[in-house]
Structure formats: structure tokens, C-alpha cells
Amino acid sequence: MVRLFKHYVPHAVLLLGLVDLVLLLLAAEAGWVLRAHQIGIALTPVAARWPQLLSFAAALQVALVAVGAYGVGSFLSLRFAAARLAVAVSLGVIFLSILYFLVPSISFWRSNLLYSMLFACALLVGVRALLGQLLGGERFKRRIVVLGAGSRAARIRELAEQPGVNFVAAGFVAMDAAPALGDAVPRDAIPNLAAYVIDQDANEVVLALEERRNALPLADLLRVKTTGVQVSDFSSFLERETGRVDLSTLNPSWLIFSDGFASGRIVSSAAKRAFDIVASTLLIALTWPVVLLTAIAIRLESRGPAFYRQHRVGLYNQGFDILKLRSMRIDAEAEGQARWAAKDDPRVTRIGRFIRKVRIDELPQAWTVLKGEMSFVGPRPERPQFVAELERHLPFYAERHMVKPGITGWAQINYPYGASVEDARHKLEYDLYYAKNYSPFLDLLILLQTLRVVLWPQGAR
After folding, report:
1. Residues in CB range of 389: below 8 A, 6 or more apart
2. CA 277 distance to own-chain centroid
3. How high is the pLDDT of residue 460?
């Protein structure tokens, strides 16, 4: 894993992204050269068309990230990768059309663009056919040795067996007399732990002891560390590999002393607010016809107002009202008690089912963002009744209110819609990861990946 702006990116993904960037530049140049040859134009130096080449490559690279073309599926299935690439190239052309309209001086001819698109599709599919299995194989994964053979070590083994993980469990060392993993090597059978780690060709040791109090093998860990091998505790390892903070094993001291939750983010917070103002203003200006037509359709289908306000809990537990397009019947909570949305919820109207899937019902919240009560990116704000219930059942739930709530977020793009306390627990783990590792880079990644969620809805209710 490479940590970019406090967010972990797998080596294979980073390498594939760099290869794609080079191939997109080559595709753009090949399209230009082919069209110039067809119409008999003398070729100028490449330096003369760098703006065109870079704009083409950048737009398609952004589209690749947005549709999830660097997800696990792209390394496991060529068919999956080709489908995502086709959508990405189509979106890239839309991005380029907007960019060329705004900045005509960097535009391609349409014929150049067509040829470059074809070359890009062939090259991107080809590199995944040739390198997909290699990049997704063990060569680009970290090899770890786990100190421990109990339930925590068993969780690491289960995680290692899932497709698309970024590490290989090279060995387990039982540090006590009663290991839960039968194939774990007893510590007493290893004369030199540091030499054992090197023999396993491991570049990381993960401490997965069930009880650390007076049980830390300090001499072993020091010897391993001084050989140049990384030593990680269980919580940090899971955070890096899963993109979430594991609540079941979380120790408050880890949250206190680990990196993250930086409060001195004056510049990034100001930039985030500036982006929210500009983006919400543009969104309101561009989507008001869609909101208007949807509101008319809602009124035609069922009686009652097209919009509704709902009280939510925001930053520092302060309440505020969000504005949404109504997707349920007006008597959805006639008894006056808040209810979780359920799968195939009978309270949802036909229009409501559609606008929930494509997130049109969320568009009026741009006004809430403009007012500063929400941001585009952040933990999803919950209703006060649910917050009270969740704070009783879930540790650290109040910590998610230390950042401004958002329309989309790390939990929304990584976990399907939740409608229970257990779902809220999983989403809280992602929300804590976001609050702990916030950066403008992570915000940008979430915004781009939200497009993937809209195109391929998962669990919208």
C-alpha cells in the first residue's frame, strides 16, 4: 500500500493507473497522427499539442476512477473490466465535450477524438488482458507474518482468503499455549523470530494478540523492527486493508495516539467550504429543471407536497432541516414514530423508487449545502430518534458528529443502504475512517466514486 494524502492506495492500482495514463497519452497522439496522415497534414512536434494530449488523458483517467475501473473486479474479470472501460470512455467524451466548450483552444478535431477513443479502448482492454492477473497476483501483495493464533489472527486469515485483498498471510506464530489456528507455528519452536520473518520473505509483522497487557513480545518486536520489517498493530492493519475502523477490537487509546483527526485544517476546511459554495450554486442552477419536472411527477402520482423537510443531527450534535423530494406516501409515518426504510418498502411510491435509485431525491439538499449546514462529502446525517438509539448501542457513534455531515460520503460509496443497528455499525466504521483520514484528496475520490454508485445502484431504498 502507498499512502497518498493520508489515504491508502494499493501498489497494483497505482501502477495500473500510471500505465493507463501513458497509454491514454499514446492513444491521443496516435489518433492525431492517423488523422493527419489521412488528410496529408505535415506533423508538428509533439510539444505543440501537449494541451490536447493531456486534456484527453486527464478526462478519461478521471472517468476511469469515477466508474470504479480500478476496483477489485477489474483485476479478477476481464469482462467486468471491459464493461467499466466502455462506460468510462463514454463518460470521458462527455467530460471532454464540456471542457472543449469551455476552453476551445485545447480541443481535438472530432475525427481525432474518435480515433483516439478507439485506440484508448483497445489499449486499455489489452493491458488488462495482459497484466490484470499479474497485477492482481501475489507479486504485488504484501507478505505478512501474524503474531498470534487466536480469534484476531483467524479474522486476518478470513480476510486473506477474500478475492482482491492486498496481502498474503505468509505465516502465523502462536504466542501462547492454546492457539485457535492449528497450523500456527509455536513461538518456542522458532529460535530467532526476526530470521523466521526474513525466511518467509515477509515485509510486515502484524501484532494480533488477544491480550496485550503484560504480554507484548518487546524483544521480538524490536529485533524485527531493526531488520527493516514494518510492525503494525491489529487495528492499524485492518484500517489500512479494509478502509474502515474496526469497532469490535477498537481501543480508545489507539484513536487517541494514532495519526489522524487533525484539527489544524484551516486551509483545507476553507477550500472545502469554497468548493461547497461554488458546486452547490452550479448544481442548483443546472438541475432545477430536473427538480421541477420531478416535483410535478410526484404531485401527479400522489396527493401531498412534492418537497418535505426532515430534522437531522449535524455538526457538534446541532439540529437542522434537510430538504428532499418526497419519495414516500404522505402517511408513511402516520403513527408519528420514525422507522427505518426497508427493502421493497411499500411506503415508497413508483416515482419515489426511481428517484431514490438515481439519487434525484437528494438534489434539493444542495440548498442545505449552500447554507453551510451540510457539505457535499461527509457522514450521512441521521434523524434525532435514530441517533439516540444508535448512541446507546454503538461505541464512538458521537464522534461522527465531529465533522460536517454530507450528501455523499465514504460509507455511502462503500456500503449499501443500511436500515438497522448492525448496518449503522458498519457504516460508522467507514465514517470514522473518513473523519480520521480526511483530506481534499479523499473528498475528491468520494465525489468521483459517487458517480459509480449512481450508475450501479446498490441497496437504494
Report:
1. 421
2. 23
3. 46
d(CA 234, CA 246): 9
C-alpha to C-alpha distance for 181 and 318, rounded to whole angstroms: 48
Helix/strand/coil for 289: helix
- For 354, which DSSP code? H
How many residues does the structure list for the chain? 461
Q: Among all chains, which residue has been given the C-alpha cell 487533525? A: 262
- CATH numbers and ranges of domains, the chain: 2-135 (no CATH), 141-242 (3.40.50.720), 266-455 (no CATH)
DSSP states of 98-120 as a string?
HHHHH-GGGPPPHHHHHHHHHHH
Contact 200, 145 (CB under 8 A): yes
Phi-psi region of 261 (alpha: psi -120 to 50; beta: other; left: phi over 0): left
Q: What percent of the chain has pLDDT over 70?
A: 92
Find, among 44, 51, 122, 136, the residue nearest to 89 by Cα: 122
Distance CA 55, CA 169 (A): 42
Mean pLDDT in residue range 283-300: 92
- The answer to whether the CB of 67 falls within 8 A of the CB of 451 is yes
Question: Contact at 8 Å (CB) between 328 and 301?
Answer: no
pLDDT at residue 350 is higher than 90 = no
What is the value of pTM for the model shown?
Answer: 0.87
CB 171 within 8 A of CB 185: yes
The single-letter code of the amino acid at 435 is A
User: How far is it, in rounded angstroms, from Cα 175 to Cα 189?
Assistant: 11
Could you tell me if 290 and 384 are in contact, meaning their C-beta atoms sit under 8 angstroms apart? no
Contact 441, 7 (CB under 8 A): yes
Taking only the tens place, the pLDDT of each residue in 421-438 is 888 899 999 999 998 988
Using CA atoms, how far apart are residues 82 and 122, in angstroms rounded to an integer? 10
CA 42 vs CA 38, 47, 52, 323, 327: distances in Å: 11, 15, 17, 58, 59
Flag the least confident range among 9-13, 54-58, 408-412: 9-13
Which residues touch 130 (CB under 8 Å, ≥6 apart)? Answer: none
DSSP 326: -
Which residues make Cβ contacts (< 8 Å) with residue 363, sequence separation at least 6?
283, 287, 290, 291, 325
10 Å CB burial of residue 422 (0-12, 13-18, 19+) is exposed
For residue 256, give the C-alpha cell. Answer: 487517541
Cell 452550479, located at residue: 282
- Cα–Cα distance for residue pair 78/209, rounded to 1 Å: 39
d(CA 278, CA 447): 15
